[in-house]
Specification:
InterPro entries: DZF_dom, DZF_dom_C, DZF_dom_N, ILF2, NT_sf. GO terms for molecular function: DNA binding; double-stranded RNA binding. The chain has about 400 residues and is of the alpha+beta class. The chain has helices at about 55-70, 75-95, 115, 140-155, 205-225, 230-245, 250-265, 275-285, 315-330, 335-340, 375-389, and strands at about 105-110, 125-135, 165-170, 175-180, 180-190, 350-355, 355-360. The protein folds into 2 domains: about 70-225, 2-Layer Sandwich (Beta Polymerase, domain 2), CATH 3.30.460; about 230-365, Poly(a)-polymerase, middle domain. Helix content is about 40%, strand content about 10%. The strands form 2 sheets. The protein has a 5-stranded mixed sheet, with helices on both faces. Strands 6-7 form a two-stranded antiparallel ribbon. β6 and β7 form a beta hairpin. It is globular, with a radius of gyration of 27 Å. It starts with about 55 loop residues before the first helix and ends with a helix.
């Protein structure tokens, strides 16, 4: 049996012509393949250095000094710990022996947020506790719950005016403050109650779901991001976000995942030095990690491979990218002190000079299209119908 070259599957057709790409059937969306931006840490073996790495001892020392300045003092940590211990004791009492209190029933209490993760910043002495209720979180029930916890906390502290705790009701629950420390009680409910929530009587459903997500985030962080370098980098990134308005859209959860990715996502799976990881964060953001079409970072606590940056609007994604690009240019020309310790005047909004190099702020690449009026939308629909006929 004789075989002819090129006559098998995928071979040339008659006349030597190869089949071209098949047209996409009507109504079928093309396959979407997100791309990861260029990351030197992942492909460094393909780009070997031609000269030794520069000495960044001064940059590393500046990062560690800034982290030390941002770390809460022993007094601040003790104040938060004492208040958390007292509030948890009150909540445990309501779980075990609620007595005549019947406004709500507590399923469990979980620590979340920066206090639980060990990434608190000095001056922000706040600990977050998520209280999961068995019952529905009505506004009236939450108010009675807040008053009960406040009364029991005052009773446990005694009559000393120096230890008097204050109560503040919020849309997420309530806050208890004492001696410069604050405990935020974030109220939510069990999963089976989510579909039965009534916006007229219960807390906002999005807020309740965000509190449940905070529990998942805390659990994931405890299992996967316990490395000390990750906590240092998170603290530095949160400080950076606080001082540069262009990074404000980044949520604490986005910063947690970005720091974890920058430290551990490399071929060796070993923690990178803090100076390399800090620069890598800016490089990834500047390269478009959080832009449309990017593979981004998949949220490990959500289903359907949700990319974490999709919580931002397109304007916010563009703003984060251009801000990171400007900061990276400043950092590349030796301006790390200005990035770490101040932003006056704003180097992301005004032209600055670094070692005879002029760094000008970038302009927005995305402009939100103007909203169409109802008459214009009807004209577009009529035009499409005319084209179809």
């Amino acid at each position: 049996m004789r075989m002819a070259r090129g006559r098998g599957r995928g071979g040339p057709m008659r006349g030597g012509m190869r089949p071209g790409p098949r047209p996409i059937p009507h109504g079928v969306k093309p396959l979407y393949l997100p791309r990861h931006p260029f990351d030197l840490a992942l492909c460094e073996p393909s780009f070997p250095r031609v000269k030794p790495a520069p000495d960044e001892t001064s940059f590393t020392n500046a990062l560690m000094k800034r982290n030390l300045d941002l770390t809460p003092t022993q007094h601040e940590h003790t104040a938060v710990l004492n208040l958390v211990t007292k509030v948890q004791a009150v909540l445990d009492g309501l779980i075990i022996t609620p007595g005549t209190f019947d406004a709500c029933q507590i399923e469990e209490v979980r620590e979340v947020g920066s206090y639980k993760k060990g990434t608190m910043i000095t001056g922000h002495n706040v600990a977050d506790l998520v209280v999961i209720l068995k019952t529905f979180p009505t506004r009236e029930a939450v108010d009675k719950f807040a008053q009960k916890v406040h009364e029991d906390l005052l009773a446990s502290c005694g009559q000393d005016s120096g230890t008097k705790a204050s109560l503040t009701i919020t849309e997420r629950g309530f806050e208890l403050s004492m001696q410069g420390a604050t405990v935020r009680i974030l109220v939510t409910t069990v999963l089976q109650n989510l579909r039965k929530l009534n916006p007229e009587f219960h807390l906002d459903a999005k807020i309740i779901q965000s509190h449940l997500a905070a529990v998942r985030h805390s659990r994931w962080f405890e299992e996967n991001a316990h490395h000390s370098s990750i906590k240092v980098l998170i603290r530095l990134l949160r400080d950076l976000r606080k001082r540069f308005d262009g990074l404000e859209p980044l949520s604490p959860w986005m910063l947690d995942l970005l720091a974890h990715n920058a430290i551990l996502n490399n071929p060796s799976r070993q923690a990178l030095p803090i100076n390399i990881a800090y620069r890598r964060c800016l490089q990834l953001l500047a390269a478009g990690l959080f832009l449309p079409g990017s593979a981004s970072i998949t949220d490990p606590c959500e289903a359907n491979n949700m990319r974490v940056h999709t919580a931002m609007t397109l304007e916010q994604q563009d703003l984060v990218c251009l801000t990171a690009q400007t900061l990276l240019r400043v950092l590349s020309h030796g301006g790390f002190q200005r990035i770490l310790e101040g932003n006056t005047p704003d180097i992301t909004g005004e032209t600055s000079a670094w070692n005879d190099v002029i760094v000008s702020p970038l302009e927005k690449a995305y402009e939100k299209p103007p909203e169409k009026k109802d008459d214009e939308e009807m004209e577009d629909v009529n035009a499409e119908e005319t084209m179809d006929t």
